[in-house]
Amino acid sequence: MRYFLSFSYNGLNYHGWQIQKNANSVQEVIEDALSNILRLKVKLTGAGRTDTGVHAKLMVAHFDAQISNELENNLLYLLNKYLSNDIYFFGLKKVIKNAHARFDAISRSYEYHINFTKNPFSQGFTYHFNDSLDVKLMNIASEELKVYSDFQAFSKSNSGVKTYICDINLAEWSILGNGLIFRIKANRFLRNMVRSIVGTLLDVGLKKLTLKEFSDIIESKNRNNAGFSAPAHGLFLTEIEYPNSIFINESIKK
Q1: Which of the 8 DSSP states describes residue 191?
Q2: Tell me, what's the pLDDT at 121?
Q3: Judgement on whether residues 180 and 204 belong to the same structural domain of the protein
């Protein structure tokens, strides 16, 4: 049986989602936990990657296993008990045989958090930014993102992807308390894409870039022309959408 596992994590103590040599990853610790609880080797396939220090309010990964009804109903409890408090499991669903956590995702959403005042209780979760910003101008530039489809200018160099085409249908800045939240939604994202978009939009807000220069950067398809990558710790993966047709309508205790 194939399962979709839903969970959130604080990325500060991990070198991103994906397993890598000599570094602690979210994927590795969850695979180890599942393998020990189920007493079989489990391989997870995630909905995507997050970089070192990036957080997820919602991540989804699939795995295949034969599990008893009793263990199935207690798996989330056992996982939460087994692992540290920086990972929390909250969903387990049966899916059709060929369902894929990455390739079947319809859309993904991210938030980027900025705080204008120093706050010891938000350290590691927001980007402390001192300079004043023209948020109206940043939102006009954000609307331009929905006009384009090729985002090579915001992609990490030598990422090895076959296409830089993404369909962005939401990109906006909101003022919240003493800070800002940038929300963006698309069918797919390139490596480092959101952080480089945020960094470039901050240059627009600082009036280092005009709106035309922002559009020119996108059209150049050259990462060297875009702004800096905003720090990882302000970024959150917040939502992943899937078609209802991949889910098997059997209730699993949550």
Answers
A1: T
A2: 85
A3: yes
